[in-house]
């Protein structure tokens, strides 16, 4: 059975409200060294703001980051997935859609995590290591029986 995203997702998601200033959201992202922030209302994701949003929607038009709220630049509606989604499906879906991250929500639609390209890369790298090591040790056992 394929593993689900709840095994590898980031659980402590950095969030903000839709009326938070763009400046406050940017500071949160900088302080946490992350590339996105999920916009929530009542724990439910309604949008997402990424570094790309800052460059294309803020910097390029010289928007006032203290006077404008993130709801003016967030991508909405945000696509989410349930925690039972397989790692392989989420990877395929993200690649096809060009997404770098997907918020994970429970049955009530509340944010419980986020799966990122980095999470997937780390998972697949670890799987490759396990595969190589198991085959390497098998080859060695066959070549050098005790």
- In spatial order, strands of the major sheet run 1-2-3
Number of domains: 1
- Could you describe the largest sheet, including whether it forms a barrel? 3 strands, mixed
CATH first level: which class? Alpha Beta
Write down the overall mean pLDDT: 92
The CATH homologous superfamily is called CBS-domain
In total, how many beta strands?
A: 5
- Dominant shape: elongated
CATH architecture: Roll
Q: What would the CATH topology be? A: CBS-domain
Number of helices: 4
SSE ordering? EHEEHHEEH
Helix-and-strand structural type = alpha+beta
What low-confidence regions span 5 or more consecutive residues with pLDDT below 50?
none
Q: Which percent bin holds the helix content?
A: 25-40%
The Rg value, from CA coordinates, equals 19 Å
Which band does the percent of strand residues land in?
15-25%
Distance between the termini: 34 Å
Write a structural description.
With 146 residues, the chain is an alpha+beta fold. The chain has a single domain (5-143), classed as Roll (CBS-domain), CATH 3.10.580. It is 39% helix and 18% strand. The chain has 4 helices and 5 strands, in the order E-H-E-E-H-H-E-E-H. The strands form 2 sheets. A 3-stranded mixed sheet has the order 1-2-3. Strand 4 (101-105) and strand 5 form a beta hairpin. The longest helix has 27 residues, at 117-143. The protein is elongated, with a radius of gyration of 19 Å.
Write the layout of secondary structure elements.
Elements: E1 15-16, H1 22-32, E2 36-41, E3 44-50, H2 51-58, H3 87-97, E4 101-105, E5 111-116, H4 117-143
Parallel strand pairs: 1-2
Antiparallel strand pairs: 2-3, 4-5
């Amino acid at each position: 059975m394929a593993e689900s995203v709840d095994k590898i997702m980031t659980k402590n998601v950095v969030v903000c409200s839709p009326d938070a200033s763009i400046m406050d959201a940017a500071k949160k992202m900088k302080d946490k060294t992350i590339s996105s922030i999920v916009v929530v209302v009542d724990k439910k994701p309604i949008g997402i703001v990424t570094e790309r949003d800052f460059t294309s929607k803020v910097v390029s038009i010289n928007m006032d980051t203290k006077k404008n709220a993130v709801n003016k630049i967030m991508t909405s509606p945000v696509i989410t997935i349930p925690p039972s989604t397989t790692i392989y499906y989420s990877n395929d879906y993200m690649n096809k859609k060009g997404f770098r991250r997907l918020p994970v929500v429970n049955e009530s639609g509340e944010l419980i995590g986020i799966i990122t390209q980095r999470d997937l890369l780390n998972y697949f790298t670890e799987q490759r290591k396990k595969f190589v090591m198991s085959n390497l040790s098998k080859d060695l056992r066959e070549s050098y029986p005790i």
